[in-house]
Amino acid sequence: MSNKIRLGILGGGGDSLIGILHRVASSMYDKYQIVGGVFNPNWEDNIGFAKQIGLPTNRIYKDFDTLIEEELKLPESERIQVVSILTPNFLHFPMANKLLENGFHVICEKPMTTTYEEAKILNQTLKKAQTVFAVTYTYTGYPMVRQMREMILNGELGTIQKVDAQYYQGWINPIIHDKEKRSSTWRLNPEKSGISCCIGDIGTHAFDMLEFVSGVKIESVLADLNYLYSDNKMDIDGTVLLRCSKNVKGVICSSQIATGEENSFIVKVYGDKAGLKWEQENPNYLYLMEDGKPLRVLKPGHSYNSELSLDGTKLPPGHPEGIFDSMGNIYKGVAKAINKEPYNHGEFPTIIDGVRGMNFIEKAVESHQKGNVWVDIENVD
Amino acid sequence: MSNKIRLGILGGGGDSLIGILHRVASSMYDKYQIVGGVFNPNWEDNIGFAKQIGLPTNRIYKDFDTLIEEELKLPESERIQVVSILTPNFLHFPMANKLLENGFHVICEKPMTTTYEEAKILNQTLKKAQTVFAVTYTYTGYPMVRQMREMILNGELGTIQKVDAQYYQGWINPIIHDKEKRSSTWRLNPEKSGISCCIGDIGTHAFDMLEFVSGVKIESVLADLNYLYSDNKMDIDGTVLLRCSKNVKGVICSSQIATGEENSFIVKVYGDKAGLKWEQENPNYLYLMEDGKPLRVLKPGHSYNSELSLDGTKLPPGHPEGIFDSMGNIYKGVAKAINKEPYNHGEFPTIIDGVRGMNFIEKAVESHQKGNVWVDIENVD
Amino acid sequence: MSNKIRLGILGGGGDSLIGILHRVASSMYDKYQIVGGVFNPNWEDNIGFAKQIGLPTNRIYKDFDTLIEEELKLPESERIQVVSILTPNFLHFPMANKLLENGFHVICEKPMTTTYEEAKILNQTLKKAQTVFAVTYTYTGYPMVRQMREMILNGELGTIQKVDAQYYQGWINPIIHDKEKRSSTWRLNPEKSGISCCIGDIGTHAFDMLEFVSGVKIESVLADLNYLYSDNKMDIDGTVLLRCSKNVKGVICSSQIATGEENSFIVKVYGDKAGLKWEQENPNYLYLMEDGKPLRVLKPGHSYNSELSLDGTKLPPGHPEGIFDSMGNIYKGVAKAINKEPYNHGEFPTIIDGVRGMNFIEKAVESHQKGNVWVDIENVD
Amino acid sequence: MSNKIRLGILGGGGDSLIGILHRVASSMYDKYQIVGGVFNPNWEDNIGFAKQIGLPTNRIYKDFDTLIEEELKLPESERIQVVSILTPNFLHFPMANKLLENGFHVICEKPMTTTYEEAKILNQTLKKAQTVFAVTYTYTGYPMVRQMREMILNGELGTIQKVDAQYYQGWINPIIHDKEKRSSTWRLNPEKSGISCCIGDIGTHAFDMLEFVSGVKIESVLADLNYLYSDNKMDIDGTVLLRCSKNVKGVICSSQIATGEENSFIVKVYGDKAGLKWEQENPNYLYLMEDGKPLRVLKPGHSYNSELSLDGTKLPPGHPEGIFDSMGNIYKGVAKAINKEPYNHGEFPTIIDGVRGMNFIEKAVESHQKGNVWVDIENVD
């Protein structure tokens, strides 16, 4: 009998990209076995997909509520232990909340919820449940992001004095410039996608990453968002000025109209001793800049890296790993938590990251709507 | 009942890097299920490792011969279909040969055998067996390597006029410069490692890659190898001049004493219309150079790429995939062949690649020993 | 008798970096001959320096007023035609103003003046003088910056929708964190350096460059500046939100506390068809990004470049030129204007660039001081 | 009266690229004044060009012999001190030889002569003349090449164990593939261009550079050249295996059919402690690779650089200088030698570099013609 963690999956069927990402990630360290789930609301697609990925179909359920009901009937030693939620955004909250209430561990795609209010409720539920909860800000799993965090926490940059993140994409052009498309796509429909497109989808990655690597807390934001067309209801570009703990200032530049950019997420943190830069599209390089010294380029797998970083590298230097490996590292960390093994706080993003991210989205939009004024991020614990 | 391909593994237990590479690769497209194998000659380690990676232990065998014997007793619908050979090099040939003789498909790590003679025998065995055989020149699975191949085969470079590969590493320094270590390590012991270290381990990758992407055949070689110390028995650096089909000349530069280099494998092919360059350490960039035109940088996942390339990319542009994904693509191709689905000849390296690679190693050493003279590569089919 | 333009120099003696930059730049296209000037207020240093750089000393003057007085006595065919002002900032305005009033052409280092008020007066003086005036925003002379401008003006990006400039340096760290130094350096003394350090020195380059390459006008700014210490009187970091003509939004990120950054000036402009990126530290690459197409990297000297770009490249592709060559191109453009030859408006920055730059500095500081509110840039012509 | 060195120029008139390169280089440090020369064999073009570059015409001579004759009549304090030879290759030797015989210093473009025999004669003439002689292997003047040399000479790489240079261009394609053009261009005519095209033009740069930076002497070569067409008389591509002093092996890869390459000259030297890499197209980066340490990127102008390197940088870090600046540094070194000031041996390439370079060309061709055999480079002093 396998001692792997029994994993259930909600959503992610068919050609879903997020589906294959989570399946591969879960398999990378031989820690999980997918035992069941609901891949699709359509029963034939659901069962068909389960067969396609080689799963036995006895624990493929017709819907989420049935999954909970049936799994609870199983002895604990057979029951799904953790559920990955890969469904449309508006389902994240009700599913996660019910799973936690019934004692399951949860791995939840971002955005964790559709409102800050929901996020706070989920946080309360988790406090009662005392299970493991992770929100998949995938990029925090890269070895060199982890290394960046550890170096900063260890004081290698000195006192932090500036944080800066850019997240530029260009994919929305064909939609935003077409009157018909921009009014019909679900991505630009607030009822389906929440109150923000650009900040909600990628700005929130930048927000989480800056806090993750720098250890400073973003306390206030002043945002100028861009909608481009007066009939467009959601931001597709935005710059956010930041005021942080420890007297640090910073900026987040995000855009979905940065034409030709693919997924250009760049993070820079400067202390009074040195600076660090990381770029998602070349994730295996971490640039250490010190005044008057040669630029140093750190790479994964070297013994000069921290334990947290090395724990996320499978092969020796020179063998590039990528985003699947990054997500795999998050799954690995969650596995440790579920198995009650010791783990580093940086191994996976927690519900607090999710709650703060939701608050950031709402506050950025509020700042913009009030005429680009400073608005505070709330504290949660 | 799962419709996944039943995979057996030989070797790759414990902390084996090649072990995790193959396990992850096999899982990437939901095509394989590991059902058994022999991970370690020590029974306790063998069983212990199986448990550690969450495998049922009923088909973990005490040794290779037992695996064959027991699996053949199972009905074909339950029997292991394909075996991945990850054992020490000298075991590749006898294992592969027996597996083929008994009707199994085989995925074999490189070097395929320890001598060219063995390689030719294996080729004959395969001709009788008519099963699927792949040798894992891992780098050929990268999407941009596949794209390079397709563009060249489609004539986008015009007539090929120059091929060039560099494969530089620096890891052997601490061994080679230590008299004690260089005489005791198995890597520099011809009885354990075959007749060549540098050419055998990495030069052969360069040889296979040049033929894979360019479509030209390397016909003669003139090699100057370097042993650095007179008491060292194996080359740790070597440059090989090439004469190829279609009147093409070229060069392979390989080294394990290129201090500080990690895994710098660079491939360049020039035609009379354009040139292409690819670098393993940044595998998601393919550089297209045309006289008088802007340099173009092709990246994975774009619709401008060939089918063969796109088939090896799971996520959209800007989401870097790496070497696990590259190996995953080779497994995907093998799965198609096993399942008798249509596939492109470039999806996995065949026994011919393995046979030619073994011949290259022997001929390069022969050229050097005869005083740097031209020696012909033999034709096989 | 030489037909070179007779050039006078004010300042730039001794080890002055700006001095050697202008001297070399003036010589690059065989268009100028330095005939006199005032290199230093100290007479011995002044004469000594003239000898050191191989100049006859008969037209080295004891001070600026004497230069004007004596040169005006010479026949026009011998008189200095154009004067380069390389003195401390507060002298730029009085010198430039008097030179223009006396019919000289002027090449003025930036910042053109110390206040916007002075800049407007200078503009009026120039209108009467009708001579040639250039302000040396050096970076606009790079061939690939010129190419960027031409491509955008030709519509190759489509409708501009986003502008973004980053100018990060880290040199001020050793000063700003030392209480004694930050109170005593002239750079952080408003009486000696004007009202802004970071915005005034480098933010203004970003402002000018964005307008230069994109053709849009920046109309309003909202700035958040950073002084780091309460006893520090001048900004050493600042982010400025931009609202521009044609409904374009943008951002300027500038810093002198971006530790380890040298002179990282990066300019990005995105249109609805494509985007362009240029980086000062690698000035010979221009990145053209189009959705769904390979990234293209344009380089100097190729026939695909515009006339304006090619006019600024002396050698064939692959022979890197640098910042001296960039400044040389500005001098070349000024020479054309002085010689009344046809020239492209992009060949050198004009007084309007200088005036707008001064206004930007004052408005950015005003925005910050008023609590990060929108402030309009004035129109000048 | 100017104390600049009086420089004469032979050739380089009209649109000559080498002409502008030398003129600008000579002006960069205020050390030279061009006083006369012969720019063109056609008198009107000669005088016209002198006027165009603003020179007085009284010392523009109708031919080389007249220049010598007339200049010798002038008092030594007015006479041309040093002559730059920028004429077609076959004139280098007779001009340089006569100039040396008459006591002039000489700056000679490469190839220094057309045969090794001439080179040796010139060396003898110089020994008698005892004047200053420099051959302009331009690339050795780059600050980071100088830094590479100094670091290696200082032992920072440990014992050298491998040298490698690549010099790839693609410009000859339109000529070589056109039967008419390849038979008519002077570049592929041995009577006009000497015995080698690719090795003679660029391979020789690689040869000189490897010796310049590494301090090892190349002792034997084995070359495989490529002519592509049987009716083509000169190599347009060639790989040269190297055996060097101190038991070092290496390789030079050179090509003019590397389609799309511009001027890709890359130099790598590996010692047992570390490796260094430099690329001409990005000349301001020097990569220091050490096993198990972060890659370090050294850049010009930092105090961590050697005196020799810093002497060749005019502006602070982050202000890129280029090939004009590199040549300017060679002129600066020659000025020191002429002025009998102390200078570093690395400041300019000497006649020994020129002699060895000529020998390399002849030996590479000899090796190829004899069937790719080892041929020794001769020793000269």
From TrEMBL, chains A, B, C, D:
Domain Gfo/Idh/MocA-like oxidoreductase N-terminal: 29-137
Gene3D superfamilies: Dihydrodipicolinate Reductase, domain 2, NAD(P)-binding Rossmann-like Domain
Transmembrane intervals: none
One Gene Ontology term of the molecular function aspect: nucleotide binding
InterPro entries per the UniProt record, alphabetical: Gfo/Idh/MocA-like_OxRdtase_N, Gfo/Idh/MocA_oxidoreduct, GFO_IDH_MocA-like_dom, NAD(P)-bd_dom_sf
Natural source organism: Algibacter luteus
Protein name: Predicted dehydrogenase
GFO/IDH/MocA-like oxidoreductase domain span: 145-276
